Amino acid sequence: xxxxxxxxxxxxxxxxxxxxxxxxxxxxxxxxxxxxxxxxxxxxxxxxxxxxxxxxxxxxxxxxxxxxxxxxxxxxxxxxxxxxxxxxxxxxxxxxxxxxxxxxxxxxxxxxxxxxxxxxxxxxxxxxxxxxxxxxxxxxxxxxxxxxxxxxxxxxxxxxxxxxxxxxxxxxxxxxxxxxxxxxxxxxxxxxxxxxxxxxxxxxxxx
Length: 207
Known about the structure:
The chain is mainly alpha-helical. It has helices at 28-34, 44-69, 74-81, 87-99, 105-119, 124-133, 138-145, 152-165, 172-184, 189-206, and strands at residues 3-8, 14-18, 21-26. The mean pLDDT is 89.
Protein backbone atom coordinates (compact mmCIF):
# COMPACT_ATOMS: atom_id res chain seq x y z
CA UNK A 1 0.00 0.00 0.00
CA UNK A 2 1.25 3.49 -0.83
CA UNK A 3 1.05 6.60 1.34
CA UNK A 4 -0.32 9.06 -1.21
CA UNK A 5 -0.74 12.07 1.05
CA UNK A 6 -0.12 13.49 4.53
CA UNK A 7 -2.03 16.48 5.85
CA UNK A 8 -1.60 18.31 9.15
CA UNK A 9 -4.91 18.74 10.99
CA UNK A 10 -6.07 21.75 13.01
CA UNK A 11 -5.32 19.77 16.18
CA UNK A 12 -1.72 19.25 15.09
CA UNK A 13 -2.05 15.58 14.17
CA UNK A 14 -1.10 14.16 10.78
CA UNK A 15 -3.73 12.52 8.60
CA UNK A 16 -2.47 9.69 6.40
CA UNK A 17 -4.00 8.94 3.03
CA UNK A 18 -3.49 5.61 1.28
CA UNK A 19 -4.34 5.33 -2.39
CA UNK A 20 -6.14 8.65 -2.10
CA UNK A 21 -8.34 7.60 0.84
CA UNK A 22 -8.03 8.80 4.45
CA UNK A 23 -6.74 6.00 6.67
CA UNK A 24 -6.09 7.44 10.15
CA UNK A 25 -4.24 10.26 11.88
CA UNK A 26 -1.17 10.08 14.11
CA UNK A 27 0.40 12.20 16.83
CA UNK A 28 3.21 14.59 15.75
CA UNK A 29 5.77 12.67 17.82
CA UNK A 30 4.76 9.39 16.19
CA UNK A 31 4.92 11.07 12.80
CA UNK A 32 8.49 12.23 13.46
CA UNK A 33 9.80 8.93 14.79
CA UNK A 34 8.08 6.78 12.15
CA UNK A 35 9.58 8.80 9.28
CA UNK A 36 6.45 8.09 7.25
CA UNK A 37 6.17 10.20 4.10
CA UNK A 38 4.20 10.50 0.90
CA UNK A 39 5.17 7.86 -1.63
CA UNK A 40 6.26 5.37 1.04
CA UNK A 41 5.23 1.77 0.44
CA UNK A 42 3.90 0.07 3.59
CA UNK A 43 2.37 -3.33 4.26
CA UNK A 44 -0.96 -3.76 6.02
CA UNK A 45 0.92 -5.05 9.07
CA UNK A 46 3.22 -2.01 9.14
CA UNK A 47 0.28 0.36 8.93
CA UNK A 48 -1.53 -1.49 11.70
CA UNK A 49 1.56 -1.31 13.90
CA UNK A 50 1.80 2.42 13.22
CA UNK A 51 -1.82 2.83 14.28
CA UNK A 52 -1.23 0.83 17.48
CA UNK A 53 1.90 2.83 18.28
CA UNK A 54 -0.12 6.01 17.96
CA UNK A 55 -2.92 4.71 20.17
CA UNK A 56 -0.46 3.59 22.85
CA UNK A 57 1.26 6.99 22.77
CA UNK A 58 -2.04 8.88 23.04
CA UNK A 59 -3.36 6.62 25.80
CA UNK A 60 -0.11 6.96 27.73
CA UNK A 61 -0.31 10.74 27.46
CA UNK A 62 -3.88 10.64 28.80
CA UNK A 63 -2.83 8.37 31.66
CA UNK A 64 -0.08 10.76 32.69
CA UNK A 65 -2.58 13.62 32.68
CA UNK A 66 -5.06 11.68 34.83
CA UNK A 67 -2.36 10.70 37.32
CA UNK A 68 -1.20 14.31 37.57
CA UNK A 69 -4.68 15.23 38.84
CA UNK A 70 -5.14 12.42 41.37
CA UNK A 71 -3.77 8.98 42.29
CA UNK A 72 -5.51 6.01 40.66
CA UNK A 73 -5.58 2.30 41.18
CA UNK A 74 -4.57 0.18 38.20
CA UNK A 75 -8.20 -0.88 37.75
CA UNK A 76 -9.52 2.67 37.87
CA UNK A 77 -7.02 3.89 35.31
CA UNK A 78 -7.69 0.97 32.99
CA UNK A 79 -11.43 1.56 33.06
CA UNK A 80 -11.02 5.26 32.27
CA UNK A 81 -8.69 4.53 29.37
CA UNK A 82 -11.10 1.93 28.02
CA UNK A 83 -13.61 4.72 27.38
CA UNK A 84 -11.43 5.80 24.45
CA UNK A 85 -9.09 2.90 23.63
CA UNK A 86 -9.19 -0.88 23.34
CA UNK A 87 -8.63 -2.80 26.58
CA UNK A 88 -5.38 -4.27 25.28
CA UNK A 89 -3.98 -0.76 24.79
CA UNK A 90 -5.30 0.32 28.20
CA UNK A 91 -3.65 -2.64 29.92
CA UNK A 92 -0.31 -1.99 28.20
CA UNK A 93 -0.41 1.63 29.36
CA UNK A 94 -1.28 0.64 32.93
CA UNK A 95 1.61 -1.82 32.95
CA UNK A 96 3.90 0.97 31.77
CA UNK A 97 2.67 3.26 34.56
CA UNK A 98 3.40 0.50 37.06
CA UNK A 99 6.90 0.08 35.63
CA UNK A 100 7.45 3.80 36.16
CA UNK A 101 6.18 3.48 39.77
CA UNK A 102 3.36 5.89 39.02
CA UNK A 103 0.81 3.31 40.13
CA UNK A 104 1.09 1.14 43.24
CA UNK A 105 -2.16 -0.51 44.32
CA UNK A 106 -0.79 -1.55 47.71
CA UNK A 107 0.41 1.93 48.62
CA UNK A 108 -2.74 3.56 47.24
CA UNK A 109 -5.00 1.21 49.23
CA UNK A 110 -3.06 1.76 52.46
CA UNK A 111 -3.04 5.56 52.16
CA UNK A 112 -6.72 5.74 51.27
CA UNK A 113 -7.71 3.41 54.11
CA UNK A 114 -5.79 5.53 56.64
CA UNK A 115 -7.44 8.71 55.42
CA UNK A 116 -10.94 7.25 55.48
CA UNK A 117 -10.50 5.78 58.97
CA UNK A 118 -8.45 8.49 60.66
CA UNK A 119 -9.71 11.64 58.93
CA UNK A 120 -13.30 10.76 57.99
CA UNK A 121 -14.01 8.28 60.75
CA UNK A 122 -15.44 5.62 58.45
CA UNK A 123 -16.09 2.09 59.60
CA UNK A 124 -13.85 -0.66 58.24
CA UNK A 125 -16.80 -2.20 56.40
CA UNK A 126 -17.46 1.07 54.60
CA UNK A 127 -13.75 1.53 53.90
CA UNK A 128 -13.62 -1.98 52.41
CA UNK A 129 -16.52 -1.16 50.09
CA UNK A 130 -14.87 2.10 49.03
CA UNK A 131 -11.56 0.37 48.26
CA UNK A 132 -13.37 -2.20 46.16
CA UNK A 133 -15.22 0.61 44.40
CA UNK A 134 -11.83 2.07 43.45
CA UNK A 135 -11.10 -1.16 41.53
CA UNK A 136 -8.42 -2.28 43.97
CA UNK A 137 -7.64 -6.02 43.99
CA UNK A 138 -8.89 -8.03 47.01
CA UNK A 139 -5.38 -8.73 48.30
CA UNK A 140 -4.53 -5.01 48.35
CA UNK A 141 -7.79 -4.23 50.15
CA UNK A 142 -7.29 -6.81 52.88
CA UNK A 143 -3.63 -5.93 53.35
CA UNK A 144 -4.55 -2.27 53.81
CA UNK A 145 -7.16 -3.15 56.44
CA UNK A 146 -4.78 -5.41 58.36
CA UNK A 147 -3.15 -2.26 59.69
CA UNK A 148 -6.14 -1.60 61.92
CA UNK A 149 -6.80 -3.70 65.02
CA UNK A 150 -10.11 -5.19 66.04
CA UNK A 151 -11.17 -2.10 67.96
CA UNK A 152 -10.78 0.25 65.01
CA UNK A 153 -14.50 0.44 64.24
CA UNK A 154 -15.27 1.09 67.89
CA UNK A 155 -12.57 3.75 68.19
CA UNK A 156 -13.68 5.39 64.95
CA UNK A 157 -17.32 5.43 66.02
CA UNK A 158 -16.37 6.88 69.40
CA UNK A 159 -14.29 9.64 67.80
CA UNK A 160 -17.14 10.49 65.44
CA UNK A 161 -19.69 10.68 68.25
CA UNK A 162 -17.43 12.98 70.27
CA UNK A 163 -16.70 15.19 67.28
CA UNK A 164 -20.13 15.53 65.67
CA UNK A 165 -22.94 14.08 67.74
CA UNK A 166 -22.15 14.56 71.41
CA UNK A 167 -24.53 17.50 71.79
CA UNK A 168 -27.41 15.46 70.37
CA UNK A 169 -27.34 12.79 73.04
CA UNK A 170 -29.35 14.68 75.63
CA UNK A 171 -32.67 13.08 74.60
CA UNK A 172 -33.93 9.87 73.01
CA UNK A 173 -34.69 11.50 69.67
CA UNK A 174 -31.12 12.77 69.45
CA UNK A 175 -29.77 9.33 70.30
CA UNK A 176 -31.95 7.76 67.63
CA UNK A 177 -30.75 10.24 64.99
CA UNK A 178 -27.14 9.68 66.04
CA UNK A 179 -27.50 5.93 65.69
CA UNK A 180 -29.05 6.36 62.24
CA UNK A 181 -26.23 8.70 61.16
CA UNK A 182 -23.56 6.26 62.32
CA UNK A 183 -25.26 3.39 60.53
CA UNK A 184 -25.10 5.42 57.32
CA UNK A 185 -21.35 5.67 57.93
CA UNK A 186 -21.20 1.88 57.88
CA UNK A 187 -21.06 1.11 61.60
CA UNK A 188 -22.96 -1.88 62.94
CA UNK A 189 -25.59 -1.39 65.63
CA UNK A 190 -23.47 -3.37 68.09
CA UNK A 191 -20.44 -1.12 67.57
CA UNK A 192 -22.60 2.00 67.87
CA UNK A 193 -24.03 0.86 71.19
CA UNK A 194 -20.55 0.06 72.48
CA UNK A 195 -19.37 3.53 71.46
CA UNK A 196 -22.26 5.22 73.23
CA UNK A 197 -21.67 3.10 76.32
CA UNK A 198 -17.96 3.94 76.26
CA UNK A 199 -18.74 7.65 76.00
CA UNK A 200 -21.15 7.42 78.92
CA UNK A 201 -18.49 5.64 80.99
CA UNK A 202 -15.89 8.28 80.16
CA UNK A 203 -18.27 11.12 81.07
CA UNK A 204 -19.15 9.35 84.33
CA UNK A 205 -15.45 9.03 85.21
CA UNK A 206 -14.89 12.72 84.50
CA UNK A 207 -17.57 13.79 86.99
